[in-house]
Amino acid sequence: MRTTIRIDEQLLKKAKQLAIQRKKSLTAVIEDALRESLARQDAAGQRPPVHLTTFSGKGLLPGVDLDDSASLLDLMETTDDSD
Hints:
Blueprint: H1 9-22, H2 26-45, H3 69-77
Helix pairs in contact: 1-2
């Protein structure tokens, strides 16, 4: 089947170079890449869901900022064993 697509100029240049290296047509290189991409997408959709183990607790302490990694590290290094 013949169709027209728009491809980024640099991407097309690399695809043409790959076709020359592999002694294949540009069409074959593009078809192979598309098949591979679709196969990866199909395989990713078939993965079983991940279940993370969670633990109950008191939640976050007042004033804890999860976006401040330095403060979190300081807080973890100075644990309070009075719980």
